[in-house]
Amino acid sequence: MKLVKSSGPIWQYQLTPPEAALLEGLLKQFPFTALTPVTISRTDRSQASGERAKLLNESLAEHRRELQKLARLLLSPDKFQPQAKGVLMTLTAAEREGLLLVLNDIRVGCWQALGEPADIHAPPANEQHRGYQGLMDLTGYFESQLLPE
Amino acid sequence: MPTILEPVTRPVIRHQSQSHADLAPTFYVVCWNDPVNLMVYVTHVFMKIFGWNQQRAEKHMLEVHEQGKSVLIREGAEKAEFYVHQLRNHKLQATMEPAA
């Protein structure tokens, strides 16, 4: 996957057929993991902080639902156009940002499902963990290609 | 002849009352290190959310990476909460901590 054109709000990337199939598969199957509840503060134990954490988790659940809709929209045929040398992916700036959010949601979700290990490349404990690690590698690859150096 | 003293006008010193905003608690918005978010992604998110230039965003990203955390901004509760929501939506490990 490589950036071929970035003019104004339009971003175009050239993907090989396997890359396009993998990316489309990620979008089709999103989300891969359940949301993990988060805390809003590490030191504040007040009631207000508890209420803020509740709101935050509700907001994250709503955000996840929005991302799911976005993932489906990104699968529309005008985004992935087959060409002689592979597939041309055309995104607006907002769609590119959305794709980054979807990919990173998968990546971080897999890390959380693994128990938030310090070493993300530690030998997997089982096949499910191997799958999560594979998804983390894949999404990391696509993210690094989407973002400029 | 008696001396007539001129009245002395002493300035009245009023203690300025603090506004509600001054008295309201403030919070540090902190981003904590994790091994999963790509460095280039963290920089990108800081630039997007705070409108920082690349240099400033990279400085904070490196603080997170090398020191385990970075204080990104100090704000009142409402704004701090807003930024934590934004950062968490991007899957960064952000919290708001009461400022001492």
Q: H/E series of chain B, N to C?
A: HEHHEHE
Shape of chain B: elongated
| Overall number of strands of chain A | 4
**Going across the major beta sheet of chain B, what is the strand order?**
2-1-3
* Unreliable residue runs of chain B: none
The low-pLDDT segments of chain A are none
| Average pLDDT reading of chain A | 96
Strand content of chain B: 15-25%
Our measurement of the CA-to-CA distance between the termini of chain A, rounded to an integer number of angstroms, reads 15 Å
Give the helix tally of chain B: 4
Task: Estimate the mean pLDDT confidence of chain B.
Answer: 89
**Globular, elongated, flat, extended or rod-shaped: what is the shape of chain A?**
globular
Q: Give a quick account of the main beta sheet of chain A: strands, pairing sense, barrel closure.
A: 4 strands, antiparallel
In terms of quaternary structure, the protein is heterodimer
Biggest interface:
A-B, 33 and 22 residues
Helix content of chain A: 40-55%
Radius of gyration of chain A, whole Å:
17 Å
